[in-house]
Specification:
Elements lengths: L1 E12 L2 E13 L4 E5 L6 H8 L7 E6 L2 E2 L5 H11 E5 L10 H12 L6 H9 L15 H13 L5 E5 L7 H16 L3 E5 L3 H4 L4 E6 L2 E7 L2 H22 L11 H4 L2
Parallel strand pairs: 3-8, 3-9, 6-7, 7-8
Antiparallel strand pairs: 1-2, 1-4, 4-5, 9-10
The protein binds adenosine-5'-triphosphate and magnesium ion (MG).
Length: about 260
C-alpha cells in the first residue's frame, strides 16, 4: 500500500523553483495495477523515485507498506527498497560487463537473503531467459535486456513493482511481451505502478492517473471490458511472437509463497 499526502518535490534552479511534484494526494492499495501518464516534465519519474525510496520529498508524507519514509534513515530506506520494491527503467540499467545471471544476483547480495544463485536462476526462468544466463547485456536484444531487468527487480520477491517507461525503448511486439510479464506479476499479487507515454499501454492497468505540472489532474478506473479485450489481443500477439521467433514463452510458474500470501 502506498499513501502520499500533500507530497511536494521542489528544485531550486537559481532564482526559480521547479515544482516537480505539487501537493499530490494518492492512495494505491495492495495489489492494484496503476498506470501514470502525462507529458514530459509533468513529474512522473519524480513520483516514481519517491515511491521507490530513491528520493525524498521536499514536503508532505509518503507511506510505503505502513512505513513513513520522510524521516527514515538512509539505511532503513535502502532496506525497504531492497526488500519490498522492484524497479524497472526505460534504459534497463544493467551492468554491461557482467552476465545476465550476475546482474540478477546483485539485489540478493544487498539483502543477503540467499547465498545461492538459485533464486536468480528462478527469476530468469520466470521471464523465459534461463538459456541466456551467461550472456552479457551486449549479447542480448533490448527485449531480453528488459526481461533480465525484470528478473533483477523480482529476485527478492518484492510486493511493489515500479516500472518507469519499461517499453519506451522497445518495438511494439517486444513491448507487448514485456507487458504480458508485468500482467503475470500483477495477477500473482504484486502491486504495479507503471509510467508510460502510450495510451495503449496505460489502459492495460486497472487505474489510470494523469499528471500535469506536478499535479494529478485525472484519476480513473479503466473499463474492465476494454481492458480484458486488450489483454486478450496482447496474449494472442505474444503467442504469435514466440512462434515467429521460436522462443519459449515465459514460464507461468507460480511465485513463491511470500508473494502468494497477500
Ligand atoms: N534533479 C533535478 N534538478 C532540477 N530539476 C529537476 C530534477 N529532476 C527533475 N527536475 C524537473 O522536475 C520536473 C519533473 O521531472 P520528471 O523527471 O519527474 O518528469 P517526467 O514526467 O518523468 O518527464 P519524462 O516524461 O520526460 O520522463 C521537470 O520539469 C524536470 O526538469
Ligand atoms: Mg520520466
Amino acid at each position: 500500500m502506498i499513501r502520499a499526502s500533500q507530497l511536494s518535490k521542489h528544485y531550486h534552479m537559481g532564482e526559480s523553483v521547479v515544482r516537480a511534484l505539487d501537493c499530490v494526494d494518492l492512495h494505491i492499495p495492495h495489489g492494484q495495477f496503476v498506470s501514470i501518464i502525462g507529458s514530459s516534465g509533468s513529474g512522473k519519474s519524480t513520483m516514481m523515485h519517491i515511491m521507490g525510496c530513491l528520493d525524498r520529498p521536499t514536503s508532505g508524507t509518503v507511506e510505503i507498506h505502513g512505513q513513513t519514509i520522510n524521516s527514515m534513515s538512509e539505511k532503513r530506506m535502502a532496506l525497504l527498497r531492497n526488500n519490498e520494491i522492484g524497479f524497472v527503467f526505460q534504459t534497463f540499467n544493467l551492468i554491461s560487463r557482467t552476465s545476465a545471471l550476475d546482474n540478477v544476483l546483485v539485489p540478493l547480495m544487498y539483502t543477503r537473503r540467499s547465498f545461492s544463485s538459485k533464486p536468480a536462476i528462478e527469476a530468469l526462468d520466470r521471464v523465459g531467459l534461463s538459456k541466456r544466463a551467461k550472456h552479457k547485456p551486449s549479447e542480448m536484444s533490448g527485449g531480453e535486456c528488459q526481461r533480465v531487468a525484470i528478473a533483477r527487480a523480482i529476485v527478492n520477491k518484492p510486493k511493489l513493482l515500479l516500472a518507469d517507461e519499461p517499453t519506451g525503448n522497445l518495438d511494439t511486439h517486444t513491448g507487448t511481451q514485456i507487458m504480458n510479464i508485468v500482467h503475470e506479476l500483477h495477477e500473482d499479487g504484486m502491486t504495479v505502478v507503471l509510467v508510460t507515454h502510450e495510451m495503449d499501454i496505460a489502459v492495460q492497468a486497472e487505474r489510470m492517473i494523469e499528471m500535469k505540472d506536478g499535479k494529478i489532474v485525472a484519476d480513473t478506473a479503466v473499463d474492465a471490458a476494454r481492458r480484458a479485450e486488450i489483454l486478450k489481443l496482447n496474449q494472442d500477439a505474444h503467442q504469435s511472437l514466440f512462434r515467429k521467433k521460436s522462443l519459449h514463452p515465459p514460464s507461468s510458474k507460480p511465485l513463491p509463497p511470500q508473494m502468494e500470501a497477500r
